[in-house]
């Protein structure tokens, strides 16, 4: 069975790029969210194996959403996505429980590598 992944990013273009990379590599995208509060709801509803989470989003950012998701499920696997120059935020994300991070613009092999490593594939 394919690993089930939830994509969280406020930019539809970024979600489309990640979805494309994942589906080409045999992952199942079970849902998408465009902000942190949607991500929490979708996580509770879908129980994905892994979440790719943008850090900078309106309403609720990725780090706040990560902390809330970890309260729901301490074992949730989250990979943060950030643009260049957000090292401090990446450190905050790792401290909050993110398993890895990928830098935008995405390189398909790096996305797949991070997901496989996090899922222990």
Automatic annotation (TrEMBL):
Q: Which residues carry this modification: 4-aspartylphosphate?
A: 54
**TM ranges:** none
Residue stretches making up the Response regulatory domain: 4-119
Question: Which keywords describe this protein according to UniProt?
Answer: Phosphoprotein
Pfam families linked: Response_reg
Q: Which GO terms describe its biological process?
A: phosphorelay signal transduction system
Enumerate the PANTHER family for this protein: TWO-COMPONENT RESPONSE REGULATOR, TWO-COMPONENT RESPONSE REGULATOR ARR22
The protein's name is Chemotaxis protein CheY
